Amino acid sequence: MRVLLTGGSGFVGSHIADALLDAGHEARILDLERPHRLADVDWVDGDVRDGAAVGEALRGVDAVCHQAAMVGLGVDLGDIADYVSHNDLGTAVLLRELARASFRGRVVQASSMVVYGEGSYSCPAHGAVRPGPRAPATLAAGDYEPPCPSCGAPLSPHAVREDAPPDPRNVYAATKLHQEHLAGAFARETGVPVTSLRYHNVYGPRMPAGTPYAGVAALFASALASGDPPRVYEDGRQRRDFVHVRDVARANVLALSAPDAVPGALNVASGTPRTVGDLAAALHEVAGGDAPPPVTTGEYRLGDVRHVFASIDLAAARLDFRAREDFADGMAELAAALQGC
Q1: pLDDT tens sequence across 111-130
Q2: Residue 97: left if φ>0, alpha if ψ -120 to 50, beta else—which one?
Q3: What pairs with residue 29 in β-bridges?
Q4: pTM value?
Q5: b/e burial code for range 208-232 (CB count within 10 A of at least 16 → b)
Q6: What are the φ/ψ torsions at residue 28 (nearest 5 degrees)?
């Protein structure tokens, strides 16, 4: 199988390229950068927003794996046009060129857990509820848990399933949901199946560091590598699902090569929720020596949510996907990789 991989020089994309080659497939990468380490692939130098470059890259491919995107929460609303351009326009151009080429293969695209907003919660009195955005005043007072929107009672968080109503809380999240909607419209118009893989918090080697767009694992590991303490926002008890990038890459190969296409959205996660404080402590432990311990700052970002972690049942049932990478080993590998940057 020959696969067009957009964004194949990036963090997740480069691992997908490795996984495709290891599985005996051919990879063609469309990207603006060409890292030397990926030598055994075809290259098309270009931007996914450039229809001519996309059209060239599509010639002779059997499947498309769309990873090209601007990632991260961003800095402020000054980023909004860039996010929409890279993520929404880029996806629209790719889908337009697929339609023009009468493409009949399989499409897998990168989505994200951020489309959910907050995760799933229940109230003892009102059952399943959907809390709204947390108010700045309550966050500033150190009250981080979202209350029941009906009675104000404390809530119990649960693993979020793919049928949870989306509720994006920041610009990046809005663009990722729009990508899913565009892909859904394309699939309905053309009959071409599209699988949207909702990545949870991905970590691992080649993770970008030293930028406000980096993931929390990279930010913590980079701080430790520089001799600084990881700065943990809120009280560190917010729950996430941290999944290794090699597991994410394997999920993409499974979606591309499954006997039958699996349309729709699937969580890609480890299935084991951990707090952000747990992550900081694990990285501090593997750093060893005189590494400074994490500092819980009480700071917050309005675009953040409190708890969101995944149900992995659907991906297990439809793709036979289960995470394999060990968390402690993955933390050690990430710390070592960023130490050498």
Answers
A1: 999 999 999 999 999 999 99
A2: alpha
A3: 5, 43
A4: 0.95
A5: bbeeeebbbbbbbbbbbbeeebbeb
A6: -120, 125
